[in-house]
Amino acid sequence: MHPTRVIGLMSGTSVDGIDTALVEISGRDLDLKVELIAGETYPYPPQLREQILELGAGAAVSMAELATIDDAISRTFAEAAQFIQVGHQAATLIGSHGQTVYHRPRQEAGELGYSLQLGRGSLIAHLTGITTVSNFRTADIAVSGHGAPLVPRVDAYLLGDSRKERCIQNIGGISNVTYLPAVSDNWLCQIRGWDTGPGNSLLDLAVQHFTNGAKTYDENGDWAASGTPCYPLLEKWLSHEYFHLPPPKSTGRELFGVAYLHQCLEDAQGYQFSTWPADFLATITELTAVSIVHNYDTFLPRRPHQVLLCGGGSRNIYLKRRLELLLGKVPVSTTDQLGISACFKEAIAFAVLAYWRSVGIPGNLPSVTGASQEVLLGEIHGHYR
Ligand SMILES: Nc1ncnc2c1ncn2[C@@H]1O[C@H](COP(=O)(O)OP(=O)(O)OP(=O)(O)O)[C@@H](O)[C@H]1O
Ligand SMILES: CC(=O)N[C@H]1[C@@H]2OC[C@@H](O2)[C@@H](O)[C@@H]1O[C@H](C)C(=O)O
């Protein structure tokens, strides 16, 4: 069978731009293979990014404004899909995650969650002339799942090992883990995955706060590395109920966003710092690292043999070093080491999920999202040219 050429489009909770992957997919599950032909992040126009961040922070907008933003996101995603194909053979399918602007996970048994991604698949299909799968989270939510994380099934087939237990740790705006036991017969139902808490979201917001918007993130973690974490303050933050909630669980900027950062800044007033704001940034970075390891120690059967990082946070050298220290003997590297781009893994995953949808393979893992069953993820939008 010929490989299928698919584009994966993803903009995550950092809202830094549209991660775009042009891939060739062959095989279906254990024989699944993905070759990254091209990967690029296309930044959002600054004004659109601001509007998305405001929406995510709970700003009240009219339906007319919402429609305008939805249109602009759809068009920006379609452009990303067009740009990535320049100089390459065209794709026949697009998987577009869209832009999450609201995520309300289910709280109690019997209740359903809600998750809203903007960027309409129908418009992307029409503008690109390529069949587009979008709205990946709603089917899992309809069968009582969290609708997130959805990448773990793709992680399983691309990064599972017959001997080693692995944690695939994505550090985007929010952090999420996929725990992969060694491949065995009833392996899929033993896989676990959930959002561990903040990734870079609070650190990014803090850097913007302290630089009056001149910087958007702490490059390589250099600023935080020049400070020292304040452990009593960290202890206080770690008492947040999310870190102690058993999986399945998912979260977003609704919990770990602007309001939470302001709370952290207020909390900090009761503590002594020798280097401000570097100590604060070091403490925020430590919150990400310690909460990840706390999640492993509390909710996994044991620590894995290996941790593979991905997402933009895998480029934060200081954060990676803190994780290495906290994890002791467990080696920490990135998914690049196994041939899967750490920066484009999420975009690659939505290409695979679209491909699975097109051939009728379920994309969710009930052991991860808490859904009552496996379901086909995403809505297929044809095109008319
Ligand atoms: N060189 C770097 N040094 C430090 N941090 C970096 C670097 N490059 C990227 N980042 C961080 O990674 C973030 C973007 O990561 P990524 O694109 O994985 O997030 P996302 O996909 O938007 O989020 P999510 O996975 O929660 O949906 C940036 O906002 C920044 O904080
Ligand atoms: C609602 C939503 O967009 N959630 C994202 C977010 O970003 C990271 C984490 O929170 C993750 O659970 C999820 O995305 C990835 C791609 C997932 O579904 O696997």
TrEMBL record:
Keywords: ATP-binding, Carbohydrate metabolism, Kinase, Nucleotide-binding, Transferase. ATP binds at residues 12-19. Its EC number is 2.7.1.170. Pfam families: AnmK (PF03702). Catalyzes the specific phosphorylation of 1,6-anhydro-N-acetylmuramic acid (anhMurNAc) with the simultaneous cleavage of the 1,6-anhydro ring, generating MurNAc-6-P. Is required for the utilization of anhMurNAc either imported from the medium or derived from its own cell wall murein, and thus plays a role in cell wall recycling. The keyword Metal-binding does not apply. Pathway: Cell wall biogenesis; peptidoglycan recycling; Amino-sugar metabolism; 1,6-anhydro-N-acetylmuramate degradation. It comes from Dolichospermum circinale CS-537/01. HAMAP family: AnhMurNAc_kinase. Coiled coil: none annotated. Belongs to the anhydro-N-acetylmuramic acid kinase family. The keyword Kinase applies. This is Anhydro-N-acetylmuramic acid kinase. It is an enzyme of class 2 (transferase). One of its GO terms (molecular function) is kinase activity. InterPro entries: Anhydro_N_Ac-Mur_kinase, ATPase_NBD. It catalyses: 1,6-anhydro-N-acetyl-beta-muramate + ATP + H2O = N-acetyl-D-muramate 6-phosphate + ADP + H(+).
